[in-house]
Design goal:
Layout lengths: L2 E5 L2 E5 L5 E4 L20 E6 L12 E6 L10 E2 L16 E2 L5 E3 L15 E9 L4 E10 L6 E5 L3 E8 L2 E5 L2 E5 L3 E5 L4 E5 L5 E9 L22 E4 L7 E11 L2 E9 L4 E6 L4 E4 L20 E6 L6 E8 L2 E3 L16 E9 L13 E4 L9 H10 L6 E3 L2 E8 L4 E3 H5 L9 H4 L7 H13 L2
Parallel strand pairs: 11-19
Antiparallel strand pairs: 1-2, 2-18, 3-21, 4-5, 5-21, 6-20, 7-30, 8-27, 9-10, 9-30, 10-17, 11-16, 12-15, 12-17, 13-14, 13-16, 15-22, 18-22, 19-20, 23-24, 24-29, 25-28, 26-27, 26-29
The chain binds 2-(3,6-dihydroxyphenyl)acetic acid and fe (ii) ion (FE2).
Keywords: Dioxygenase, Iron, Metal-binding, Oxidoreductase, Phenylalanine catabolism, Tyrosine catabolism
GO molecular function, one term: metal ion binding
Catalytic activity: homogentisate + O2 = 4-maleylacetoacetate + H(+)
């Protein structure tokens, strides 16, 4: 089932995992087969596969494009010199370091020099290898100019883009997506796309996954509804340009290296397409969050938007979790996140507003990494303020906030750029140093005796 949704001059199809079809010219889709001898309007048929041909049907992803010229019509790929060494797709001790310290970055400035989405993309951390088809990379981007006469193609994995500042107009082979801060976009492995910046300077976060794709989390006992609803995922409708573009460049990220190939036409020449391997976007404000309704703090997995699974049940290669505006109602409960150590590793970003566990220092456009088993939790100010408010707080709504977490079972190694960055907050540890002991032996003993014996 498909629905068409209009977003100004951008039209979308709605649904997650659907088999979609879209025509920019009526009759451009072959009616009864994928590869007719001659396609309508003299188009070329081309398939893009997002899973092996033989993947089980419920996981099989592929789409068919009907395009003016096939993608193969280009000069040979050449290594881009200088290559952008700020992008990594495998992580080992020759290119990254490991570090159990709590790490935090201040908001990263958008440079003054002309920088498009490709030039402005840099890896923060990651694990595994795109070659081995297992792992992920976490990147950030800062850009101030639209991609011009070029398209990007990531052969390594899927991008989940979280814009924090500035809208992105993303032209893809399936059509165009307008993505505002507060929305996310997924650009699956292999799709060609170009990013324009209608608002000027732009900044955001990118999670890249190797060897698998995002899916909606199971809802378990929550039931059939809640969290992200499938119908709120929006897929572009066919859009094409039939122009000659001398010197048009396809920049291909392959094994973390950038290659380029020149052609003389736009890659956005798909007049019609059908399939279930598609780019899409999602507005985080549509998310229906869940939480405790009586006592104690729920684990953040309760608000998972999308998950990239591993073969182990319940263990994610990468979960995308959000901390949206919501009511806090728990009684006799420490409401902010608990102090904890996690066998999973947690990378966090902030799209706007503040974050309940950090009174200072964690700012929109900044980031933090709490690696495997690294202790963390509310800073001193947040802890003291929570205790000072006491028990009679009543229902309280957290508003104007959108923090998120990329959480993984694979332990990230940290890029040179991230470690040497002037935006690294060297004093991060100080935010917990002031946590005082509130231990009072007499009171505690009398309380525990009371519980045990005085009932
Ligand atoms: O560390 C963090 O801030 C993320 C987080 C939030 C939460 O509410 C519970 C656990 C957790 O890791
Ligand atoms: Fe955490």
């Amino acid at each position: 089932m498909e629905n068409s949704i209009s977003g100004g001059d951008f039209e979308y199809l709605s649904g997650f995992g659907n088999h979609f079809s879209s025509e920019a010219l009526a009759g451009a889709l072959p009616p009864a087969q994928n590869s007719p001898l001659v396609c309508p309007y003299g188009l070329y048929a081309e398939q893009i596969s997002g899973t092996s041909f033989t993947s089980p049907r419920n996981r099989n992803l592929r789409s068919w494009f009907y395009r003016i010229k096939p993608s193969v019509t280009h000069e040979p790929f050449k290594s881009r010199i200088p290559s952008n060494e700020r992008i990594l797709s495998e992580f080992n001790n020759s290119n990254t370091s490991t570090n159990p310290t709590q790490l935090r970055w201040k908001p990263i400035h958008v440079p003054d020099s002309p920088t498009d989405f490709i030039d402005g993309l840099f890896t923060m951390c990651g694990s595994g290898s795109s070659f081995m088809r297992h792992g992920y990379a976490i990147h950030m981007y800062t850009a101030n100019k639209s991609m011009d006469n070029c398209a990007f193609c990531n052969a390594d994995g899927d991008f989940l883009i979280v814009p924090q500042q500035g809208r992105l107009l993303i032209t893809t082979e399936c059509g165009r997506l307008k993505v505002s801060p507060g929305e996310i976009a997924i650009l699956p492995q292999g799709f060609r796309f170009a990013v324009s910046l209608p608002d000027g300077p732009s900044r955001g976060y990118v999670a890249e996954i190797f060897g698998t794709h995002f899916q909606l989390p199971d809802l378990g006992p929550i039931g059939a509804n809640g969290l992200a609803a499938p119908r709120d995922f929006l897929v572009p409708t066919a859009w094409f340009e039939d122009k000659s573009y001398p010197g048009y460049t396809i920049v291909q990220k392959f094994g973390g290296e950038l290659f380029f190939a020149v052609q003389d036409f736009s890659p956005f020449n798909v007049v019609a397409w059908h399939g279930n391997y598609v780019p899409y976007k999602y507005n985080l404000s549509k998310f229906c969050p869940y939480n405790t309704v009586l006592f104690d703090h729920s684990d953040p997995s309760i608000n998972t938007v999308l998950t990239a699974p591993t073969d182990k049940p319940g263990v994610a290669l990468l979960d995308f979790v959000i901390f949206p505006p919501r009511w806090l109602v728990a009684e006799h409960t420490f409401r902010p996140p608990y102090y904890h150590r996690n066998c999973m590793s947690e990378f966090m970003g902030l799209i706007h507003g503040g974050y309940e566990a950090k009174a200072d220092g964690f700012l929109p456009g900044g980031a933090s990494l709490h690696n495997c088993m690294t202790p963390h939790g509310p800073d001193t100010k947040s802890y003291e303020a929570t205790i000072a408010r006491g028990n009679d707080v009543g229902p309280h709504k957290i508003t104007d906030t959108m923090a998120f977490m990329f959480e993984s079972c694979l332990i990230p190694r940290i890029s040179k750029w991230a470690v040497e960055s002037p935006f690294l907050d060297k004093d991060y540890y100080q935010c917990w140093i002031g946590l005082r002991s509130h231990f009072a032996v007499t009171e505690t003993i009398s309380n525990s005796r009371k519980c045990q014996y005085d009932e």
